[in-house]
Design brief:
The chain contains 7 helices and 5 strands. It is globular and about 40 Å long. With 171 residues, it is of the alpha/beta class. The chain has one domain: 3-Layer(aba) Sandwich (Rossmann fold), CATH 3.40.50.300. The protein has a 5-stranded parallel sheet with strand order 2-3-1-4-5. The two termini are 19 Å apart. Helix 1 packs across helix 7 and helix 3 runs parallel beside helix 4.
Length: 171
């Protein structure tokens, strides 16, 4: 199964993903690892990415997920996936995918970003992330006010309670 933790920068995708991956025994892929050096430099300089920057990034993630699925391996991906078009692109050709939307208040996430050290994504770009966000209708929505461990436990319980289904896209 492919599970994608999505939401704006600073919502806890990587931290919660690491905890969840440990509980499930699955690998965690971080979307940051798929960015080009040029895109990272743009974000480091406070410049939001545009779709021309994102399409190759999304395609690299899709290829990695399709490889895992072809080997019948489960995997978690931590990825912003802010727009439905991005989620569609990531899901292309994947038979089973589950989306987990880590939802939080702007103020809470801004505080977390301002406290984060050593990451290229700056708090000043958060407004552009919220402006671009198209909340998903086909995802488990999880409030991020709790601790990362409690959020991961909640996600695990909800995933285990779901019936198997096919939700990928063959576009």
């Amino acid at each position: 199964m492919i599970v994608i933790l999505m939401g704006v920068s600073g919502c806890g995708k990587t931290t919660i993903g690491q905890i969840l991956a440990g509980k499930l025994g699955w690998p965690l892929l971080d979307a940051d690892e798929f960015h080009s050096a040029a895109s990272i430099e743009k974000m480091r300089n406070g410049i939001p990415l545009d779709d021309a920057d994102r399409w190759p990034w999304l395609d690299r993630m899709n290829a990695a997920l399709r490889e895992r699925e072809a080997r019948n391996e489960s995997v978690l991906l931590a990825c912003s996936a802010l727009k439905q078009a991005y989620r569609d692109r990531i899901a292309t050709g994947i038979a089973e995918i589950r989306w987990i939307y880590l939802k939080g208040r702007f103020e809470l996430i801004r505080e977390r970003l301002e406290a984060r050290k050593g990451h290229y994504m700056k708090a000043g770009l958060l407004e552009s992330q919220f402006a671009a966000l198209e909340e998903p209708v086909d995802a488990l929505s999880v409030d991020i006010d709790g601790s990362p461990a409690s959020i991961a436990d909640s996600i695990l319980r909800r995933l285990q309670a779901l019936p198997e289904r096919k939700t990928g896209s063959d576009k």
